[in-house]
Amino acid sequence: TGRSTTRTWRHCPSTRNPRSSDRSQTEACSRTARWDLAAERSAHERKRADEIGVALDIQIRRGAEAYREIVAEAVTFQADLIVIRRRGKPGFLANLLMGEMVSKVIHDVQCPVLTVPRAAEFWQHEVLAAVSETPSAEKIGTLAAKIAAICGVPLTLVSVAGSQTTQAKIE
To answer: Against a cut of 0.85, is the pTM above it?
Structure first.
């Protein structure tokens, strides 16, 4: 699939230049630059997907709140899994909280959500699934087993027992 990307360079007034009088032209150039970058990234992702034999559909949505668009896309296409970045800013408070957008996605969708930290390296060691004494434990274990099998890594199921009675039930 010999797709090529052509990058068009345009002269745009600088948004940092206080003498730049045409702000609407500056904003249009900024949007165009973002679209050009998105097209370049899309071409790169298509090439990577072709190399590993994965069908790829790229959807670009516009909306004031990203989480609403992600949830709507998941519902429309009946997603089985959402993989989403956990960009959060570094720092003490950020370590305690997950980003607001990711939290809203997790809250509003019916399918599993895999959050990916900034420095994550995948599929080198094992998949760990945290399960508890709930009806969803079997679904979590099954999904984790499928991911482990696809990635060729072992699976560990972890359940935290608060008491000896609970521990005996789990075992």
So the answer is: no
